Amino acid sequence: YAQSDPNIIHFNDPKWSNMWYIHCNDKSHQCRSEMNIMAAWQRGYTGKNVVVTILDDGIERNHPDLAQNYDHLASYDVNGNDHDPTPRYDSRSENVHGTRCAGEVAAAANNSHCIVGIAYNAHIGGIRMLDGDVTDIVEAKSLGIRPDYIHIYSASWGPKDDGKTVDGPGPLTKQAFEQGIKKGRRGLGSIFVWASGNGGRQGDHCSCDGYTSSIYTISISSTTENGNKPWYLEACSSIMATTYSSGEFNERKLVTTDVWQRCTDGHTGTSVSAPIVAGIIALALEANLLLTWRDVQHLLVKTSRPVHLKADDWKTNAAGYRVSHLYGFGLVDAEAMVLEATKWRTVPPQHICTQRPERRTRHIHVGQSLNSSITASGCSEEPEQHVDYLEHVVVKVLIVHPRRGDLEINLISPSGTRSQLLAKRLFDSSNEGFRNWEFMTVHFWGERAAGTWSLEIIDSPSRLRNPEVLGNLKEWTLTLYGTSQNPYQHFSVQHVPSRMLEIPTPEEILEEPELQKEEEEDEEYSGERFLKKKFGLYEGQCHSECGDQGCDGPDVAHCLNCVHFSLGSLKSGRTCVSHCPLGHYGDIASHRCRRCHKSCERCVGRSACVSCKRGLYLNTLNSSCINTCPPGYFADENQKQCLKCHDTCMTCLRFADRCTACREAYSLAGMTCVPECTNGTFFHLEDMTCSPCHSSCRTCTGPGKEECIQCAEGYLQQEWRCVQDCTPGYFSGEAAGLPHKMCHRCEENCLSCSGPGTTCTKCKAGYSLISRTCIVNASCNNADEVFCEMVKSNRLCERKFYRQFCCRTCLMNG
Amino acid sequence: SEVAQLYTNHWAVRIAGGPQQADQIAAKYGYRNLGQIGSLDDHYHFHHSRVVRRAVYSLKGPHSFIHMDPKVDWAQQQVVKPRVKR
Fold it and tell me: Which of A7, A192, A436, A607 has its CA 20 to 30 A from that of A142?
C-alpha cells in the first residue's frame, strides 16, 4: 500500500477524481502501490515533444481531450488512404477503440473535460488500419509510417484470442518491425508497445501471438486494482511488464476518452495497458530522447516491480530479477523510469547467437516429456556474435503433432531458471503442429548464456487420441540475444579506460596540467654523442635519415642531426623520422617534431588542430578540440567534428536535423523544427509550409471547414464545424475552456429552442408544445384523475425520463 | 476446423529498379501500382480491379503471370488476416 500523497496535483477534469491508478487521494479506498505517474509529473516530465501514435480503428481528433495534443504528422488513414484518421461512426459504435487508447496516452490536462492522459503534453496521432481487410501490406504500412517522426507505436490488437489460433506477422510486417528498430528514430529504433491478449477465458496463451512475442515489441499485460489476475489475462513468457486495467465488478475501472466527445469507464480489457505503458515510455523519452529501443526494454526490466501482484509463479532468475508469466517483471513504475532514463548510458550493441542441438528428429511420447539439450558457448568464438549477458531468448521449433493444444513446452537455462514457453490450450485441436514457430522468453534477462540449455516438451492428452500417432520434434534452434559485456558496467571499460591503457578521458585531456616540455625546449644537439663523434669513435655507415653531421652508430637513434625531423628529447632519447607521429607536427624551420596541444590528434601548429583525440570534437571555427560543441553545432561521431545544425535548429543532437531546440518562428515537433504557424494557418504536410485554414477557423489541422480546432471570431462551434449562426435544433451557449461560443443541441424532439432544458419553441412532427416541452401527440386512455394526480404530485412531467408518460393527457385535462 | 483463407485483389511485389520499373510491370499485367509499402525499399503494393475483391481461392488468370516475370523477385497475393481489438 502507498501513502496518500499530501502534495497531490489537482486537475479540473471531471473524471480526475476517478483516476485512482494515478493519484491516491480517495479516503474511501486504501491506496495501492501505484505506478508513480504523478511522481514523474512532479519531476517535470509530461511527455513534451514525444510523439506517440495508436495503431487501431482511428482516433477522434476533434475530441476536446485530444484536439490540443493531436498531431496530424503522426496520423494516417491506411484504410482510406488519406491523412485523416477520424473513425467511421456507426450505430453500433464499432470504432471506439483507438480513441479510447489515445486518451489514455495524451488526453489534455486541466481543460474541464473528461480525463488526464499519462503523458498529457505528448503529441498523439492515430493510424486507422483496423477498419477494413487487414493484410500483411496493411500492417507493414502502418508500422512504417513516419518512423523518424513517430517515437512510439502502440497497438492493442492481434490474432484471435480464441485459444486455438497460432498466428503472427507476415513477411512484410516482420521486415517493417526490423526496419523500425534499425532505422526508426534516426537509428535509435522505433518503440512498439503491444497488448498481450484478452483470451484468458479461452485458455489462450500469448506465445501463440507472434506480435506480442516478437523481440521488437514490448508486451504488456494487466492486473486488477487488488493485484489479481483479470479474467481476460493471457499468460506467457514474453510479457515484459504490467499496468492496472479493469477487473472484477467490485474493483475500480479505468476511465478514458470515448467517441462523440465523451468519456467512458467501460470495461477496458488488456487494451488500455499498452497505451498506459506507451505514455510512461513517453515520459522516459522526454527525460532522455536518446534512449534506444533496447534501452527502453532494459529500463522496463530494471524498474518494474512485483509489488502486491498475486501470482503463484513469481521466481527470481539468476540475475536477480523477479519475473512471472502473468506480469513479466511486474507493475510499471513511471518515476523510476524517468529517473533511470536521465542517467542512462546506452547498452552495448546487441549480439545474436544461434545454436542447434546435435540430434534432430525426436518422437514425443504421449504422457511423457521429451528433453533435448544444447551446450551453448554463447558464440564466444565469434566476437561479433558473442552473447554473454542475455536479453531475449528465442526458441524456434518445427513440431508435428496430432493435437497442438496438448503440448506444453519449457526451457531451462544453464543457471537453472525454468520458463514456460507454451502452456496447454484446451481449445486448440489443430493437427498443424508448430511450423518454425518462434517462442520468446524474457525470463532469463541478465543471466549468463554459456552452458547447457534444456528444452522440455510434454504431451498430455486432454481428450482421447490415437496413441499410435506420435508427435515429432523435427528441429529446434536456440537464439540468444544479448551483449558480450555487462550492459551496466561496460562504461568503465569503454568510456573510462583503465590507467594501464593510458588513454585519458576527454575531460582528463582538457583538464590535465601542461605536459612535460622536455622536447619543446630547444636544446643544442650536443653532449655525449657529439663528443663521441669528435673523437671519432664511430666510422661506419649512418642511417639514411641522419643529416649532414653524421652519426655515432648505425641506427636512426644514433644520428647527430636529421634530414627531416627529430623526435624525442635528450632525456628520453632522440630519433630521426621522415614524418612526425600522431600528436606531433613537423616544425620545418627547426627540423623538430613538436607536440600538438594535448587535445589534438593531428595538428599543423601547436594549437591548430586538424583532428582530435578520442572523445573530443574539432571545432572548425578556431581549430580547437572540445568535448561539447557550441550552440548551433552537433558532435558528429563519424567525422569527430562539430558540424552545423540544420538552419531551423537552434541546438541539435548527433545529426544536423535531429533538433532539440528551434530558431525563432519554428517549433519543435518530435525532433524536427516546423514553422510556427500563426493563427488562421496550419502546417501543410506535403508543402511543408503554413497554409491558410478555412475562413471559419481560428486554428485548425487542415484546410477543410471540418478541420477547425477553434473557431474564428464571430463563429460558433456546432458539432464538427464552425458556423455563423446555430442551425434550428441548436442554441448558442458558452463552452468551458473555449474562447468562442458553441451551438448546443436542443432538448429531444425540439425543432428549435431558446436555451438549455425545457425551452422548446417548436416541435418535431408528431409532438406538441406544452409548457415549452415537446410531448408526443398521443393520449393515454387510462389517465384518470387519480393517475394524473399521482403524475402531478410526483412532478413526473418535469423529469426528462417521464416526459412522455401520459403528460399530454394529464396536462390537457388540467 | 481451420478458417478458410480469404484472398484479396491486392498483391505485395518486390521489384528492383525503382518505381518506374514497378509501374511498367504493374501495367504489363493489368495491375495498378499503389506505391511503396511503408519504408520497405523495392516493395510495392499492387491492386487488380478485375480480380474478385475477396475469394476463398486464389483465382488464376493473366494477372497470375506476374509471379513468373524475371524482373519480379517475389510476389504474394494478400490474404485477410483476422485481427481482433483487445
Answer: A436
Dihedral of the CA atoms A558, A559, A564, A565 (nearest 10)?
60
* Structural contact between residues A723 and A716, judged by C-beta atoms closer than 8 angstroms: yes
pLDDT of residue A145: 96
Burial class (CB in 10 A: 0-12, 13-18, 19+), A194: buried
| CA dihedral sign of residues A571, A573, A577, A582 | negative
Given the DSSP bridges, would you call strands A721-723 and A123-128 parallel, antiparallel or unpaired?
unpaired
Cβ pair B40:A144 closer than 8 A:
yes
pLDDT at A522: 39
Q: Which residue of A has its CA nearest to B80?
A: A135
Whose CA is closest to A123, among A40, A37, A50, A65?
A50
Question: In terms of residues, how long is chain B?
Answer: 86
Q: Which of A63, A97, A392, A443 is catalytic?
A: A97
Residues 6+ apart with CB under 8 A from A171: A136, B76
* Measured distance CA(A166)–CA(A210) in Å, rounded: 8
Give the closest residue to A223 by CA, choosing from A303, A331, A121. Answer: A331
What pLDDT, on the 0 to 100 scale, is given for residue A109? 97
The interface predicted TM-score (ipTM) is 0.97
| Pairing outcome for strands A471-483 and A351-355 | antiparallel
Q: What pLDDT digit, counting tens, does each position of A239-256 carry?
A: 999 999 998 888 899 999
Residues 6+ apart with CB under 8 A from A553: A538, A540
Mean pLDDT, chain A, rounded, equals 88
Overall average pLDDT of the A114-142 stretch: 98
| SS3 state at A653 | coil
Contact B39 A137 (CB under 8 A): no
Q: Where does the pLDDT of residue A106 fall: very low under 50, low under 70, confident under 90, or very high at 90 and above? A: very high
Nine-digit cell string for A106? 495524451
| Angstrom distance (rounded) from CA A259 to CA B42 | 38
pLDDT at A4: 58
Q: Which stretches within A253-320 are classed as H helix? A: 273-287, 293-303
* Phi and psi, residue A610, nearest 5°: -115, -20
Contact A362, A472 (CB under 8 A): yes
Is the C-alpha dihedral spanning A763, A768, A773, A779 positive or negative? negative
DSSP state at residue A209: B
Q: Is the pLDDT of residue A317 over 50?
A: yes
d(CA A111, CA A534): 95
**The pLDDT of residue A279:** 98
Of B38, B82, B86, the CB nearest to A271: B86
Q: Do A143 and B38 touch (CB under 8 A)?
A: yes
- Cα separation, A482 vs A390, in Å, equals 4
pLDDT of residue A674: 81
* Percent residues over pLDDT 90 in chain A: 60
Could you tell me the three cell numbers for A760? 422548446
Q: Is A84 a catalytic residue?
A: no
Contact A151, B74 (CB under 8 A): no
> Which grid coordinates are listed for A468?
499410435
CA A409 – CA A394 distance, rounded (Å): 13
Identify the band that residue A521 occupies on the pLDDT scale cut at 50, 70 and 90. Answer: very low
- In terms of average pLDDT, the best of A54-58, A268-272, A599-603 is A54-58
Instruction: Give me the pLDDT at residue A2, please.
Output: 57
Range scoring the smallest mean pLDDT among A4-13, A103-112, A405-414, A548-557: A4-13
**Radius of gyration over alpha carbons of chain B, in Å?**
14
